[in-house]
Protein 1
Amino acid sequence: MNTSETVMYEWNTINWRKLEVNVFKLQKRIYCASECGDVKKVHRLQRLLLKSRDAALLAVRRVTQDNRGKHTAGMDGIASLKDEERLELAERVRQNPYETKTQPLRRVWIPKPGKTEKRPLGIPAMEDRARQALIKLALEPEWEAKFEPNSYGFRPGRSCHDAIEAIYRQVRLVPKWVLDADIAGCFDRIDHEALLEKLGTFPKLRRVIRAWLKAGVFDEGNLSPTSAGTPQGGVISPLLANIALHGLEAAVRDASPKTVYLKDEKRYVNGRPALIRYADDFVVLHRNRKVIDDAYDTIANWLSRMGLEMKPSKTRIVHTLEEHDGQVGFDFLGFHVRQYPRGRSSCIRIPKTGKPTGFTPSIRPSKASQKQLLEKVAEIIRSHRAVSQVRLIRLLNPILRGWGNYFSKAVSQDVFGRLDALIFAKLKAWAYHRHQNKGRRWIMAKYWSFRTGHWVFGIADKIKLLRLSDIPIKRHIGLRVVKSPYDGDWVYWSQRLGQYPHVPKSEAIRLRQQQGRCACCGLNFCSEDQMKLLHLDGDRKNFTRSNMALVHERCVTTMKKRVKSHHNAEEPYEGKLSRTVLKTSTDREART
């Protein structure tokens, strides 16, 4: 059947706002039904969503336009689609969402950051990706209502900083023993039958997911079967990995006693340890060492039932305050967590009693993260000795800004200052190498200027290198563990998105001013969206409020066309144009 004959609309004319609202309404109903434990209603709503044309179009848009890996081809060799082909693909996926005939995955090896070894990815075919995105739309709200509160990896609306904030709440007032563990080859070793049994979905969907898991991998001309694991690179793989690890926190909590007796304090305390997990990395914290040892055995037994095991080289037991086996504290998600002994005047006090704790908790960038940044900066400087100063600054600034924004939610000011000094020394060596016949004062005057007590690498009033010390340190506001993006509270989630560290300050300001909505389509921004800050008059130096508009990345072209047509029109535009555009055009007319 020629699906193009049944499609009576064009890709660029689709009302995406209406589609997203319709799909979100169904997802919200699935979430509420899953919270109530109504399995039949959940499955009925999921079947309805999988047959929805709106959901199919949304799934195709995400894998062909929104995802960063959209141009990576699978075994079908398709890396991009035209608008007509997207519509045909959406119609095929909608008509047969339970297709079990899948193509093998194409193996792609990517380097691990800071390591010589590589990580294997399995890239599905384009149609399989679209079908996975569609099924993920149906499965994700069901499991968001079931997932444990301290699971943060690969979940909508949750980030690394939420996991770090949860750890801070655990170590803020009490020193604790910590089991810092990592699962060996988590994505590659998950038992398929155990995963499908835990999934608990209806038979048709179960057969589709089984077909994806058993599709095989094509690597360097050889087709290998996949008897275990969820391939990294698939759209639905992170969700399946989270489902496989669901229940680990409850198992540790149920296996621990309700209370334990502390000999040092001569009193009983809560015996349930806290387990905080981000993807396959997790930590277990408690005040008693025996509870941690018992939790280690419980986790090992639980993982064995899923075909997994802890990695011995990355699993250790440490203490946050006292030295144990030559180590104090632990590294997690690039941060180093520990406690420093302090006097009565400089330590934290317990809120209810006012008694001093005797220590201060500290979360700062780990030494491995600092070393990785310095090595990356040094490599860029070393490999670009002949480029201009402006070009070098443009290469370094995105790296420094991204790294600094990520660690700006920790106690990083002294680390930032030390790294600025080391980068300054590397830049001096770069400048001295370029002008070996010039004096050092001449070189410093050419490339640096002395402002506000420190040297600035750049050209005055044009461009300068970002200093990490100039990035403000602001504490991350932790996530409310009872909240979910599918609970319908978009006011909370829209405002929260502006506080994410990876959102630049200018975009965060506009996000709050626009009340979390896109200036073009009016949709709420969500954590998976790519945002773009537009200068409406085209002048990138004009940062006035009326000239800035924050839109979805997919709405950039539409927004520019609307602004251009509105400015060129002889009469006022009466269509649905954002208030930001109307205010900008009014200001321009008043100035002229």
Protein 2
Amino acid sequence: MSIYDTLNEQQRQAVYHTEGPLLILAGAGSGKTRVLTHRIAYLIDEKGVNPWNILAITFTNKAAGEMRERVDQIVGFGSESIWVSTFHSTCVRILRRFIDRLGFDTNFTIYDTDDQKTLMRDICKHLQIDTKIYKERNLLAAISAAKNEMVTPQEYRLRAEGDFGRQKIASVYEEYEKQMQANNALDFDDLLVKAVQLFQTQPDVLDYYQERFRYIMVDEYQDTNSVQFQFVSTLAAKYRNLCVVGDDDQSIYKFRGADIGNILNFEKVFRDACVIKLEQNYRSTSTILDAANAVIRNNRGRKEKTLWTENGQGEKIEVRQFDSGYEEAEYIVGEIQDSVRAGEGSYNENAILYRTNAQSRLFEEKLVSAGVPYKLVGGVNFYARKEIKDLLAYLKTIDNAKDDLAVRRIINVPKRGIGLTSVNRVQEYALRKEIGFYEALLCADLIPGIGRGLAKLESFAALMEHFKAEAAGKGILELLEVILDVTGYIEDLKSEGEIEAEARIENIEELKNKAADYEESCREQGGEPTLSGFLEEVALVADVDSLDENSDYVILMTLHSAKGLEFPHVYLAGMEDGLFPSYMTVTSDNPEELEEERRLCYVGITRAMEKLTLTCARRRMVRGETQYNKMSRFLKEIPLDLLSTGATFAAQEKEEEPRIQTSWQQARQAFRTKAFASPKPVQQFKVAGGNGPGYDVGDRVRHVKFGDGLVTAIVEGGRDYEVTVEFDRFGTKKMFAAFAKLQKI
């Protein structure tokens, strides 16, 4: 029996079509990774293609790792010659070899978001930009958008003629690029932009890679932006054997620059393209798929397809509406606990998905108080923690001393008595002489007015030169240990306090583990571990890559983070107009924005394999105000016969439009009340300086004796409010608000 006999008819067609442009429209859970891996095997086994000539690109390290593993299993000998990696990793490999043609050194540093913010702060200070008017994050977003469209600073300035605000951004963009070049650094956008520039300006480099990669496959094609499209189309222009796989119904990253037009217009760009649809789903029950199909059918900007499955009908979708977000969280956590206790599954079979990061707070609090293990995807990235960034800055300085940000970060970490005045004098000297910060440190004795700071600066420079010498003969793990030992970094942490230091030291140990893993995996693949390679791998890691499928914890994540994953039971929370779809989308005149939100809903529904629970609340706290919302319009697009409860919808139809109950609206309503209506009993105790207790159900509060707790109920009496609080250490207490003097935290 052939390995291709296990594929369905459409999958086989996609595998066997090897020459010319091919668009595979792969619905959620339709086995696209299986198709890609079998297609690679077919090219090698049946078509005699050299593994060296195959490139497979995807978006996340996790997806690339899974594909790499499957390719190795199915292809066997020679599979190591196939490039299977993300867009960014692919570009880094090309740039490490040829970026010197563009005026950079091949040991360039990759800047993450925090590095970019630090650099932008320095640029705004240098150019005397008012950051109240031109916010740093907006400037970075404008630069990123320009790079994604391959617009250079010079072009940006020309397009901005007559627009003072955009001219200001052009000045910032020019200085940003100048500083990046001086620091021998690239941001994530640059990795793609510089690779395309390399192809456009160096014909021999382009020809080399076009000959190298005669067969190109791109996964998640609906998420590509303009520069990614430019990269793959340029690379594939010679042999035109470009196979793209994607689902326009799962295009949800417009805010990152993704252009759904790349997949919708593929046949217009490649007029001889073959289009194959994969509509059989292997993940979910037919009830879940019918709901997903019903929702996404309301979008106009899509290619028609309908998911189906042989998995059976499955359970109906459960819909629950609660009075508050707190009750919603309590119900979901209770359901998960009950199912695990009943032996119906483990914690890691459950995922709680939501539209915004802010929604995680109530779930986290409830999970903690219930003693349920959980993993929050999208919290503080491991590599964004201070101690990790400090140690990585040491490694970056050793690897690329031109990286001014890295050098300045560690010049006084741990404290060496090097003050800001000395640092500023070095910086001014470097700018005046047009040299790097580290280069200026090496000749610190020439800096006017450096005074008593000279000895300390020379000591730091000598230390870094010592580390550079050590790096030549040591592995990354050994080098890390030398840095920790010589600098006394851990001892310095301990001086801050034992409790604070413990968690940070654990993080440092985890970084050591990462270094050891990297060295081991390099040797297993027959390569040589390098400091540049380690820093590159760390820079390109994504938060979702840290998800350990073998650990038993409930997963909390936003819908954007959940794409590409699957779970037996999905809880999709906050299904309310004003939250999902968002208030901005509901009030927008642009129908494309609502269509993107609907695609996000489709993604959420299709993450569920066996059970799907959709929840919403009549009111919830949003940005400090109680918001009252209708049930989400997406819920109403699901046929009632697919739901375990349909009665709620009838009542919903009569509800008024989404509203936010601001203090102004409350006052207006009070003003409209009849003059002789019976007033409520007068409050004899003023609580928190207003008419209410100053906090609401679901808020965290602090009591002078009982400590921190969660407000579970507030009952208005004649003289005061009776408040019920579930304290973290002392259990549930009832008290009068005026005497309790609870402080909202």
Protein 3
Amino acid sequence: MFFCRILNSNLVTIVAEERSRTMWKAALLIGFFLAEGWSKECVPRSFGHNKIVCVCNSTYCDTTPDADPKVPPNGRFYWYVSTKDGERLSLKEKEFGDAHSNLFTLTLTVDSTVRYQKILGFGGAFTDSAGMHITSLSNATQDQLMRAYFDTKEGSGYMLGRVPIGSSDFSTRVYTYDDTQDDDTLEHFSLAQEDYQYKLPLMRKAHELNPEVKFFSAAWSPPRWMKTNDEINGFGFLDRKYYDVYSNYLVKFLDEYRKNGVNIWGISTGNEPINAFIPFDKLNSLGWTPPTVSEWVGEHFGPILEASDHNDTIIMGLDDQRIFLPWFAKNAYPRHNMSKYIAGTAVHYYADALAPAGLLDLTHEAFPDKFILMTEACTGTVPALRHVDLGSWDRGETYILSILEYLNHWSVGWVDWNLALDKSGGPNWINNFVDSPIIVNSTSDEFYKQPMYYALKHVSRFVVRGSVRVSMTDDVMVKSAAFVTPSNETVIVLYNKWSIPRNVVIKDTKKGPIHLELPAQSMNTIIYGQ
């Protein structure tokens, strides 16, 4: 018995040591594979039927499979897929070839000789709320989150970042940069603690991860004392006697951000000016009409910005719902020489159900030298619905369909709203809670990538800056867009709205046919060489 006990003890020790060696070997192999460019898969967590998020923490976060070689060999293509039932950017390599079509096969045609707009990029907003939640995480988890968005290899490759000038509704308090009454010389102008704590550090980190990122800005409201109603919201306009003072106020913002290591590429005429005309709306706002904004830009802000050290900072008009196009642009840009200073038109997506995408086409036709950029979008805005709906595939579908629609109607990019929120969808000083592609859980030092995140990544990771949209057909249930990148790759993005798989043949007029069976309710990105 004693001998048996010793033998069993020794066997246990040997087994334990061998298991330990095996675990270390596995760990070393995993480390080797990751060092060699192998991707990390999603760690899923379910919040209900087909409501799946990918969980990231300080030591682990899923990444995009990195195809090798970057461009598939001639006659082959890469296919990235995300599905409602849990696939997230899984990678397959396939061959061009004869398609076995049938009565139910959908045929789509790509013609890269027909070209449209050049792509500027995709991104999100550095709001106070987003910064508050991101910085509530440990440094290592913060780094994971920022890489998830701005790293060009493992992350989404974001090229754009929007930042409010002063407070927005996604702040915990109302503030501007000069709340001293009648400070015409702006002697008391200063950035807020939120800029130093929540905005600037994260913007510098984004630029470190991707030096090509461009930042643009918008004011929700100037200081109260510059407005006709002396309020941060409501039916208020910029008092004409402050047209120059407000222009200098915005230039001072550009000065201070540059001093703190952040250059601002673009600035809009102000966030959602039409909100000032909506009774009982509590959102910080500054009302503009086409005649007043054209006078301010054409005779005051435009010349003052041009004479400043920031004369390479571009100006965008509108920054509101596309339902106001092309009317707003047609009645503003030709007046007071405004067109000289306006580089593009910024639009938001919240009223798109009331405004056909053809309005973007009409705006492009009227002003072909002015780009169109979708600058704000989010889901969870309907009060009767859940503001944050963790893992909602429907909201991911909303995102990718909107992205494809805007790109197919002349938008040079698509910019999300808050980079991150918490499970309440805030904080927001007027309780205007919404959803976000990334939700932070600081209690457990982790964050959740929602389907909305992958909807954007299916485009932003592959349709890089300088890509050109080319001709591609689609139909009501399979939406698509095609691009040629600066390195001469063709990138096709498709969404299958069907709740069943769908056979699709893509005919490239240069390369031949691609036969796919698109999974039910799936996001798809196809890449091949020209």
